[in-house]
Structure to design on (360 residues):
């Protein structure tokens, strides 16, 4: 039995509350099991074999999100344009893939056939090719299609229509271009709808891209504890993703988009034994689910917003990254050069501590 499975059992027995995938573990109960944390450290140090998966997907390991670039309503509006040199920087730093969030929906017509603006398509091509030329895997991720969450019934046809064009467009691209169907489905796009839609969009993509790796994730913002609601289609070329920003009050302290409350979270620290045990428990749950489903896992986003203390950010990022690796998950840091940035584009330097937290 794997080390993390034993750990889960210990936590489960001691906490006396068999948690379900839909119910995160209860904090106070965890406190009682955290007197001696040596076993947590041991979990990190003992290499755990990658999750066995029949999937024929290409291996990816360490990645970074090119966030706040092509998923802002128009590139540049959130302060960053993708630069070719960014790909050299991430390659040299030791990352092997880039997740590229793209807001296709603000660059496509509202009515059928939902034509994607050719100028925008060329720009995405340019960026994708910069990565491909450097032998980096690129995950083309459909990001911030907010109307899909607010009114999925009215937008489903457009969602499929946009994917049809993207799939056709990249069908002859090398296999290290991956597709991610939809970032963080949420709100009205519930599990039962999403499970239907993703089968439809996947079947359509398979007509032109029978073996391309496709990334899918659960509803409720790709939360780890909603994986159990995801019906994984029979398909050898799938990766399942989840995002991890817990505790949210810590990772999103001061985040302007997280509401006024988030200003009060400034100064929140992280790193107690109980908090570490909680992260381990969450990752164990994901690994156990993945093993049952025989799928590979991508931790597609994790990070701490830049208004938190740097030492604290480094501590959390190191721990979460180590947990991903010891559980056999690929990971992509959120994000390259903006509010969570591992790189400081105005100074033209990596934030050394954060980079080392990711690539020691
Ligand atoms: C969103 C970003 C946000 C990040 C952290 C991402 O999925 O697209 O806008 O900064 O999560 O909250």
């Amino acid at each position: 039995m794997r080390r993390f499975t034993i750990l889960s059992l210990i936590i489960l027995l001691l906490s006396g509350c068999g948690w379900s995938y839909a119910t995160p573990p209860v904090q106070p109960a965890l406190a009682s099991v955290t007197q001696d944390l040596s076993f947590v450290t041991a979990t990190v140090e003992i290499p755990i074999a990658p999750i066995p998966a029949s999937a024929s997907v290409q291996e990816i390991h360490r990645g970074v999100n090119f966030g706040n670039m092509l998923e802002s309503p128009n590139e540049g509006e959130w302060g960053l344009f993708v630069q070719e040199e960014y790909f050299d920087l991430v390659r040299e730093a030791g990352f092997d893939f880039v997740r590229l969030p793209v807001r296709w929906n603000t660059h496509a017509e509202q009515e059928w056939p939902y034509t994607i603006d050719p100028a925008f398509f060329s720009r995405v091509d340019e960026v994708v090719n910069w990565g491909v030329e450097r032998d980096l895997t690129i995950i083309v991720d459909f990001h911030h299609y907010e109307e899909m969450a607010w009114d999925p019934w009215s937008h489903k046809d457009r969602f499929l229509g946009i994917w049809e064009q993207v799939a056709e467009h990249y069908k002859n691209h090398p296999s290290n271009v991956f597709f991610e169907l939809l970032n963080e489905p949420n709100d009205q796009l519930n599990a039962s709808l999403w499970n239907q839609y993703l089968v439809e969009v996947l079947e359509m993509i398979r007509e032109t891209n029978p073996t391309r790796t496709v990334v899918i994730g659960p509803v409720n913002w790709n939360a780890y504890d909603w994986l159990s609601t995801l019906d994984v289609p029979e398909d050898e070329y799938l990766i399942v993703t989840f995002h991890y920003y817990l505790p949210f009050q810590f990772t999103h302290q001061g985040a302007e988009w997280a509401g006024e409350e988030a200003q009060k979270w400034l100064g929140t620290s992280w790193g107690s034994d109980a908090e570490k045990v909680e992260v381990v428990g969450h990752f164990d749950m994901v690994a156990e689910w993945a093993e049952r489903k025989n799928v590979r896992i991508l931790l597609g986003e994790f990070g701490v917003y830049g208004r938190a203390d740097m030492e604290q950010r480094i501590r959390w990022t190191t721990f979460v990254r180590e947990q991903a690796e010891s559980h056999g998950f690929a990971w992509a840091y959120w994000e390259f050069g903006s509010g969570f940035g591992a790189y400081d584009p105005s100074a033209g330097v990596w934030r050394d501590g954060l980079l080392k937290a990711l690539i020691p």
